[in-house]
Amino acid sequence: METSRSQHHQLWREERQISSVISERMESKEGIFRRQLVDVHGVALFWSIAEAWSQVENFQAKKDDLLIATYPKSGTTWVSEILDMIYNDADVEKCKRDAIFNRVPFMELIIPDIINGVEQLAEIPSPRLVKTHLPVQLVPESFWENGCKMIYVARNAKDVAVSYYHFYKMAKMHPEPGTWDEFLGKFVAGEVAFGSWYDHVKGWWEQKTTHPNILYLFYEDMKEDPKREVQKVIRFLGKEVSEEVVNKILHHTSFKEMQKNPTSNYTMMPGDQMDHSVSPFMRKGIAGDWKNQFTVAQNERFDEDYAEKMKGSTLLFRTEI
Asked: GO biological process annotations for this chain's record (predicted)?
Protein backbone atom coordinates (compact mmCIF):
# COMPACT_ATOMS: atom_id res chain seq x y z
CA MET A 1 0.00 0.00 0.00
CA GLU A 2 2.85 2.34 1.00
CA THR A 3 4.72 1.51 -2.22
CA SER A 4 1.62 2.21 -4.24
CA ARG A 5 1.15 5.58 -2.52
CA SER A 6 4.84 6.40 -3.11
CA GLN A 7 4.53 5.50 -6.81
CA HIS A 8 1.40 7.62 -7.04
CA HIS A 9 3.25 10.64 -5.57
CA GLN A 10 6.18 10.05 -7.91
CA LEU A 11 3.87 9.96 -10.95
CA TRP A 12 2.08 13.07 -9.72
CA ARG A 13 5.43 14.93 -9.36
CA GLU A 14 6.52 13.84 -12.85
CA GLU A 15 3.21 14.97 -14.34
CA ARG A 16 3.59 18.35 -12.60
CA GLN A 17 7.13 18.69 -14.00
CA ILE A 18 6.02 17.78 -17.53
CA SER A 19 3.08 20.16 -17.26
CA SER A 20 5.42 22.92 -16.05
CA VAL A 21 7.82 22.37 -18.97
CA ILE A 22 4.95 22.43 -21.50
CA SER A 23 3.56 25.58 -19.89
CA GLU A 24 6.97 27.29 -20.02
CA ARG A 25 7.36 26.38 -23.68
CA MET A 26 3.90 27.71 -24.50
CA GLU A 27 4.59 30.95 -22.65
CA SER A 28 7.91 31.25 -24.46
CA LYS A 29 6.16 30.76 -27.83
CA GLU A 30 3.46 33.26 -26.90
CA GLY A 31 6.23 35.70 -26.01
CA ILE A 32 7.43 35.54 -29.59
CA PHE A 33 4.11 36.39 -31.21
CA ARG A 34 1.85 39.48 -31.33
CA ARG A 35 4.56 41.79 -30.02
CA GLN A 36 4.78 45.47 -30.88
CA LEU A 37 6.87 46.56 -33.86
CA VAL A 38 10.26 48.20 -33.34
CA ASP A 39 11.69 51.19 -35.20
CA VAL A 40 14.81 50.42 -37.28
CA HIS A 41 16.18 53.51 -39.05
CA GLY A 42 12.68 54.98 -39.22
CA VAL A 43 10.94 51.80 -40.41
CA ALA A 44 8.66 49.59 -38.27
CA LEU A 45 9.93 45.99 -38.18
CA PHE A 46 9.34 42.84 -36.14
CA TRP A 47 11.13 42.99 -32.77
CA SER A 48 13.20 39.92 -33.69
CA ILE A 49 14.51 41.53 -36.90
CA ALA A 50 15.42 44.66 -34.93
CA GLU A 51 17.34 42.58 -32.38
CA ALA A 52 19.29 40.77 -35.12
CA TRP A 53 19.65 43.80 -37.40
CA SER A 54 23.46 43.56 -37.66
CA GLN A 55 23.07 40.11 -39.30
CA VAL A 56 20.76 41.59 -41.94
CA GLU A 57 22.80 44.74 -42.49
CA ASN A 58 25.99 42.70 -42.98
CA PHE A 59 24.42 40.11 -45.28
CA GLN A 60 26.90 39.13 -47.98
CA ALA A 61 25.22 39.02 -51.38
CA LYS A 62 26.81 37.16 -54.29
CA LYS A 63 27.05 38.61 -57.80
CA ASP A 64 24.55 36.10 -59.20
CA ASP A 65 21.97 36.58 -56.41
CA LEU A 66 18.58 37.79 -57.61
CA LEU A 67 16.73 39.95 -55.10
CA ILE A 68 12.91 39.76 -55.14
CA ALA A 69 11.69 42.89 -53.39
CA THR A 70 8.11 43.84 -52.54
CA TYR A 71 6.00 45.57 -49.96
CA PRO A 72 4.05 42.77 -48.17
CA LYS A 73 1.00 41.34 -49.95
CA SER A 74 2.04 42.60 -53.37
CA GLY A 75 2.59 39.33 -55.24
CA THR A 76 5.84 38.19 -53.57
CA THR A 77 5.04 34.47 -53.55
CA TRP A 78 3.68 34.64 -57.10
CA VAL A 79 6.80 36.19 -58.59
CA SER A 80 9.00 33.92 -56.43
CA GLU A 81 7.28 30.85 -57.87
CA ILE A 82 7.63 32.25 -61.41
CA LEU A 83 11.37 32.80 -60.90
CA ASP A 84 11.93 29.38 -59.34
CA MET A 85 10.20 27.88 -62.39
CA ILE A 86 12.40 29.90 -64.77
CA TYR A 87 15.55 28.89 -62.88
CA ASN A 88 14.52 25.22 -62.99
CA ASP A 89 13.42 25.12 -66.66
CA ALA A 90 9.76 24.69 -65.64
CA ASP A 91 10.44 21.33 -63.95
CA VAL A 92 7.28 21.19 -61.82
CA GLU A 93 8.52 18.36 -59.58
CA LYS A 94 11.79 20.17 -58.90
CA CYS A 95 9.80 23.26 -57.97
CA LYS A 96 7.86 21.16 -55.46
CA ARG A 97 11.09 20.06 -53.74
CA ASP A 98 10.31 22.23 -50.72
CA ALA A 99 8.05 25.01 -49.45
CA ILE A 100 8.47 28.35 -51.25
CA PHE A 101 9.78 29.96 -48.04
CA ASN A 102 12.69 27.50 -48.12
CA ARG A 103 13.27 27.67 -51.87
CA VAL A 104 13.30 31.48 -51.76
CA PRO A 105 14.38 32.43 -48.22
CA PHE A 106 13.08 35.60 -46.61
CA MET A 107 16.47 37.24 -45.98
CA GLU A 108 15.68 39.54 -43.04
CA LEU A 109 13.19 37.25 -41.26
CA ILE A 110 14.93 36.13 -38.09
CA ILE A 111 12.85 34.65 -35.25
CA PRO A 112 14.72 32.95 -32.38
CA ASP A 113 14.49 29.13 -32.49
CA ILE A 114 12.16 29.28 -35.53
CA ILE A 115 13.85 30.76 -38.60
CA ASN A 116 16.88 32.72 -39.75
CA GLY A 117 16.81 33.86 -43.37
CA VAL A 118 20.48 34.84 -43.39
CA GLU A 119 21.52 31.36 -42.23
CA GLN A 120 19.11 29.69 -44.67
CA LEU A 121 20.66 31.56 -47.58
CA ALA A 122 24.18 30.56 -46.49
CA GLU A 123 23.15 26.92 -47.08
CA ILE A 124 21.73 27.47 -50.57
CA PRO A 125 23.94 26.96 -53.65
CA SER A 126 24.21 29.70 -56.26
CA PRO A 127 22.41 31.14 -58.10
CA ARG A 128 20.18 32.14 -55.17
CA LEU A 129 16.74 33.72 -55.15
CA VAL A 130 16.48 36.10 -52.20
CA LYS A 131 13.23 37.55 -50.86
CA THR A 132 12.98 40.87 -49.05
CA HIS A 133 10.28 43.29 -47.89
CA LEU A 134 12.83 45.95 -46.96
CA PRO A 135 12.44 49.49 -48.29
CA VAL A 136 15.23 50.34 -50.71
CA GLN A 137 17.30 52.34 -48.20
CA LEU A 138 17.61 49.34 -45.84
CA VAL A 139 18.77 46.81 -48.46
CA PRO A 140 22.23 45.50 -47.44
CA GLU A 141 25.07 47.35 -49.16
CA SER A 142 26.52 44.14 -50.64
CA PHE A 143 23.63 43.89 -53.15
CA TRP A 144 24.57 47.28 -54.62
CA GLU A 145 28.33 46.62 -54.48
CA ASN A 146 27.90 43.35 -56.38
CA GLY A 147 25.55 44.81 -58.99
CA CYS A 148 22.89 42.20 -58.24
CA LYS A 149 19.77 42.10 -60.36
CA MET A 150 16.59 43.01 -58.50
CA ILE A 151 12.92 42.56 -59.34
CA TYR A 152 10.43 44.78 -57.52
CA VAL A 153 6.67 44.16 -57.62
CA ALA A 154 4.25 46.93 -56.63
CA ARG A 155 0.51 46.60 -56.06
CA ASN A 156 -2.12 49.31 -55.60
CA ALA A 157 -2.40 50.57 -52.03
CA LYS A 158 -6.08 49.76 -51.47
CA ASP A 159 -5.79 46.07 -52.34
CA VAL A 160 -2.55 45.84 -50.34
CA ALA A 161 -4.25 47.35 -47.27
CA VAL A 162 -7.13 44.84 -47.43
CA SER A 163 -4.87 41.84 -48.04
CA TYR A 164 -2.47 42.98 -45.31
CA TYR A 165 -5.32 43.29 -42.81
CA HIS A 166 -6.34 39.65 -43.36
CA PHE A 167 -2.68 38.59 -43.26
CA TYR A 168 -2.17 40.41 -39.96
CA LYS A 169 -5.07 38.41 -38.51
CA MET A 170 -3.65 35.01 -39.51
CA ALA A 171 0.15 35.53 -39.29
CA LYS A 172 1.01 35.83 -35.62
CA MET A 173 4.35 37.65 -35.86
CA HIS A 174 2.29 40.78 -36.41
CA PRO A 175 0.72 42.77 -33.57
CA GLU A 176 -3.06 42.40 -33.22
CA PRO A 177 -4.60 44.32 -36.15
CA GLY A 178 -7.64 45.66 -34.30
CA THR A 179 -10.72 46.49 -36.38
CA TRP A 180 -10.49 47.09 -40.13
CA ASP A 181 -10.89 50.82 -39.57
CA GLU A 182 -8.14 50.85 -36.93
CA PHE A 183 -5.82 48.86 -39.16
CA LEU A 184 -6.49 51.13 -42.14
CA GLY A 185 -5.46 54.10 -40.00
CA LYS A 186 -2.19 52.35 -39.08
CA PHE A 187 -1.57 51.42 -42.72
CA VAL A 188 -2.04 55.02 -43.92
CA ALA A 189 0.31 56.25 -41.16
CA GLY A 190 2.97 53.66 -42.02
CA GLU A 191 2.62 52.07 -38.57
CA VAL A 192 2.60 48.51 -39.92
CA ALA A 193 5.40 45.99 -40.49
CA PHE A 194 7.87 47.26 -43.11
CA GLY A 195 6.64 50.80 -42.78
CA SER A 196 4.90 53.13 -45.19
CA TRP A 197 3.59 51.65 -48.46
CA TYR A 198 3.94 55.12 -50.02
CA ASP A 199 7.62 55.47 -49.11
CA HIS A 200 8.31 51.86 -50.11
CA VAL A 201 6.90 51.98 -53.66
CA LYS A 202 8.26 55.49 -54.33
CA GLY A 203 11.71 54.66 -52.94
CA TRP A 204 12.18 51.68 -55.24
CA TRP A 205 10.66 53.58 -58.20
CA GLU A 206 13.15 56.42 -57.80
CA GLN A 207 16.06 53.99 -57.35
CA LYS A 208 15.32 52.24 -60.64
CA THR A 209 15.94 55.46 -62.58
CA THR A 210 19.64 55.23 -61.69
CA HIS A 211 19.96 51.45 -61.43
CA PRO A 212 19.36 49.52 -64.69
CA ASN A 213 19.60 46.28 -62.69
CA ILE A 214 16.15 46.90 -61.20
CA LEU A 215 13.05 45.62 -63.01
CA TYR A 216 9.91 47.29 -61.63
CA LEU A 217 6.71 45.31 -62.19
CA PHE A 218 3.08 46.00 -61.32
CA TYR A 219 0.79 43.35 -59.85
CA GLU A 220 -2.13 44.64 -61.92
CA ASP A 221 -0.10 44.23 -65.15
CA MET A 222 0.72 40.66 -64.11
CA LYS A 223 -2.98 39.92 -63.57
CA GLU A 224 -3.96 41.55 -66.87
CA ASP A 225 -1.39 39.79 -69.05
CA PRO A 226 0.77 37.27 -67.16
CA LYS A 227 2.45 36.03 -70.35
CA ARG A 228 3.69 39.51 -71.28
CA GLU A 229 5.08 40.08 -67.78
CA VAL A 230 6.74 36.65 -67.53
CA GLN A 231 8.44 37.27 -70.88
CA LYS A 232 9.58 40.67 -69.54
CA VAL A 233 11.21 38.87 -66.58
CA ILE A 234 12.86 36.32 -68.89
CA ARG A 235 14.36 39.10 -71.05
CA PHE A 236 15.58 40.94 -67.94
CA LEU A 237 17.39 37.78 -66.83
CA GLY A 238 18.96 37.44 -70.28
CA LYS A 239 17.52 33.96 -70.75
CA GLU A 240 15.95 32.24 -73.73
CA VAL A 241 12.87 30.19 -72.94
CA SER A 242 10.68 28.33 -75.44
CA GLU A 243 6.98 29.11 -75.89
CA GLU A 244 6.14 25.66 -74.52
CA VAL A 245 8.12 26.30 -71.31
CA VAL A 246 6.58 29.76 -70.90
CA ASN A 247 3.08 28.26 -71.14
CA LYS A 248 4.02 25.60 -68.58
CA ILE A 249 5.24 28.33 -66.21
CA LEU A 250 2.01 30.29 -66.68
CA HIS A 251 -0.11 27.23 -65.87
CA HIS A 252 1.88 26.22 -62.78
CA THR A 253 1.98 29.77 -61.40
CA SER A 254 -1.70 30.60 -61.94
CA PHE A 255 -3.53 31.52 -58.73
CA LYS A 256 -5.71 28.42 -59.02
CA GLU A 257 -2.71 26.08 -59.23
CA MET A 258 -0.68 27.83 -56.53
CA GLN A 259 -3.65 28.00 -54.16
CA LYS A 260 -3.91 24.20 -54.10
CA ASN A 261 -0.13 23.56 -54.09
CA PRO A 262 1.11 23.00 -50.51
CA THR A 263 4.64 24.06 -51.48
CA SER A 264 3.39 27.52 -52.49
CA ASN A 265 0.25 28.18 -50.40
CA TYR A 266 2.02 28.31 -47.00
CA THR A 267 0.01 25.43 -45.51
CA MET A 268 3.42 23.85 -44.75
CA MET A 269 3.98 26.65 -42.24
CA PRO A 270 3.11 25.48 -38.68
CA GLY A 271 -0.39 26.47 -37.53
CA ASP A 272 0.90 28.23 -34.42
CA GLN A 273 2.63 30.72 -36.75
CA MET A 274 -0.02 31.07 -39.46
CA ASP A 275 -3.65 30.22 -38.77
CA HIS A 276 -5.28 29.38 -42.10
CA SER A 277 -8.64 28.87 -40.39
CA VAL A 278 -8.70 32.64 -39.77
CA SER A 279 -7.78 33.49 -43.37
CA PRO A 280 -5.92 31.51 -46.04
CA PHE A 281 -2.49 32.86 -46.99
CA MET A 282 -3.57 32.86 -50.64
CA ARG A 283 -6.96 34.52 -50.23
CA LYS A 284 -8.30 35.93 -53.53
CA GLY A 285 -5.41 37.14 -55.66
CA ILE A 286 -7.46 39.67 -57.61
CA ALA A 287 -7.32 43.39 -58.42
CA GLY A 288 -10.16 45.48 -57.03
CA ASP A 289 -11.13 43.45 -53.94
CA TRP A 290 -10.80 46.66 -51.89
CA LYS A 291 -14.33 47.56 -53.03
CA ASN A 292 -15.65 44.75 -50.84
CA GLN A 293 -13.95 46.16 -47.73
CA PHE A 294 -13.77 49.96 -47.89
CA THR A 295 -16.77 52.01 -46.83
CA VAL A 296 -17.59 55.11 -48.91
CA ALA A 297 -16.27 57.37 -46.12
CA GLN A 298 -13.04 55.33 -45.76
CA ASN A 299 -12.49 55.46 -49.51
CA GLU A 300 -12.95 59.24 -49.64
CA ARG A 301 -10.53 59.79 -46.75
CA PHE A 302 -8.03 57.38 -48.28
CA ASP A 303 -8.15 59.06 -51.70
CA GLU A 304 -7.57 62.48 -50.18
CA ASP A 305 -4.58 61.28 -48.16
CA TYR A 306 -3.25 59.28 -51.14
CA ALA A 307 -3.27 62.35 -53.41
CA GLU A 308 -1.23 64.26 -50.82
CA LYS A 309 1.31 61.48 -50.21
CA MET A 310 1.83 60.65 -53.91
CA LYS A 311 1.98 64.29 -55.07
CA GLY A 312 4.85 64.89 -57.48
CA SER A 313 5.50 61.19 -58.14
CA THR A 314 5.40 59.78 -61.68
CA LEU A 315 4.28 56.46 -60.22
CA LEU A 316 0.76 55.52 -61.32
CA PHE A 317 -1.38 52.62 -60.11
CA ARG A 318 -4.59 51.03 -61.30
CA THR A 319 -7.05 50.05 -58.58
CA GLU A 320 -8.91 47.70 -60.92
CA ILE A 321 -8.38 46.10 -64.32
From this structure: sulfate assimilation; sulfation
In contact, 270 and 106? CB cutoff 8 Å: no
Instruction: Render pLDDT for 25-46 as a digit per residue (tens, 0 to 9).
Output: 334 455 899 999 999 999 999 9
How many whole angstroms separate alpha carbon 172 and alpha carbon 3? 48
State the first-to-last Cα distance of the chain, in angstroms, to the nearest integer: 80
Predicted local distance difference test score (pLDDT) of residue 267 = 84
Active site residue 166: no
Alpha helices in the chain (DSSP H): 2-32, 47-51, 53-57, 76-87, 100-103, 117-122, 141-145, 157-170, 180-189, 197-208, 219-224, 226-236, 243-252, 255-259, 296-309
- DSSP-derived 3-state class of residue 105: coil
| Across 187-216, average pLDDT | 97
Distance of CA 13 to the CA centre of its chain: 45
> Among residues of the chain, what percentage have pLDDT more than 90?
80
Check residue 214 and give its pLDDT.
98
Residue 208 pLDDT exceeds 80: yes
* Selected catalytic residue, list 133, 166, 174, 200: 133
The pTM of this model reads 0.89
Q: Is the dihedral of CA 300, 306, 312, 315 positive or negative?
A: negative
